[in-house]
Amino acid sequence: MSSNKAVVFDLGNVLIDWNPRYLYSKIFTTETEVEWFLENICDEEWNAKHDAGQPFSTGIAELSSLHPQFSAQISNWYGRWEEMLGGPLDDTVEILAELKKKQVPLFILSNWSAETYPKAEAIYDFLHWFDGKIISGEIGKIKPDPDIYKLLIETYDLTPDNTVFIDDKLANVKAAEDSGIHGIHFHNAALLRNDLAKLKLLWIFLSAPQVAFISHLSYAYAHIIPFQELTIYSFFLPEVLRKLIVLSCVFLILSGILLAYPELFPWAEESSATSLLHIWAGFFFLVIFPMYSWDHIRVHADRLTKFSLVTASGIVQFFSGLGLIVSGIPLLLYGADAIDFPREIHLGLTFVLAGSLVLHKCSRK
What we know:
Blueprint: E1 6-9, E2 16-18, H1 21-27, H2 31-40, H3 44-51, H4 56-66, H5 71-79, E3 85-88, H6 90-101, E4 106-110, H7 117-123, E5 132-135, H8 136-139, H9 146-155, E6 163-167, H10 170-178, E7 182-185, H11 189-198, H12 208-224, H13 238-260, H14 266-270, H15 272-299, H16 309-334, H17 340-363
Parallel strand pairs: 1-4, 1-6, 4-5, 6-7
Antiparallel strand pairs: 2-3
Helix pairs in contact: 1-2, 4-5, 13-15, 13-17, 15-16, 16-17
């Protein structure tokens, strides 16, 4: 197997919208009846038996003998199975296509009946994109049984710590992690894209609302600085550079804090716009900061011989800015989750820079 990471997908509610309510809302009159039937007759435990390999003929016969008044509705579970499908989850299928294009090894590990999986395979072309599959109904084991993960690894000669498993059920994800596999708990395609980007499997792309968000920020950014100052002759004037430095610092600090504390700002971690804003502001800071620092030190060299809060805070700004650049480069290249030490330094320097900016501004008054 290639040294590249392999990605393993669950199917139901990750790539395919499957829900028995789609069918039974046509059979029963009210939502209450549907929910009662799915909780008390054709419940998850009963369905799991078929995922584990029990033939539908056996399961339907046994359940119908216990609830003869619902025999027709029970039979419909298999007879009208296709009506439980809501279609492909297009955003996740798009991610699958991008991984396929990048030649990432792709596999299926799904709790699915051996009798209904061929029907799904005939409906969804993307099920043929995978390099291999483990279907629970075909092997008689279901997630989160540890043996099914072991079988996946052994069958396709995968390395657990180089394998990524995506599932919408947390218990299945934890079982994969207990087997040494990197687990991703699926919530939606946007979060999945972010998780895969952190593993360097995908790039982050902006959606239309995120483009609008960045555009509005750029518009505000441009209008804080008088337009006439941004001519080709005055672009490198110290005052313009100072304003650009301050603005990039503000964007870096705010976006950095949002990303560093996802437990306080979960919406920021879910948005690729926040990460891109931080990266863009970082690149801008990388270009502008050295120019401004050189000019500022050259003009105010006499201040370095005298101690003051202005001088001290300026020096702290200079070194914290350099530290942010140096520590930010490996984080950008290898990911914040892959390297702990520079990440902690980077976060600490963010607060140092914020404090020195405030102190420098106050001490100049």
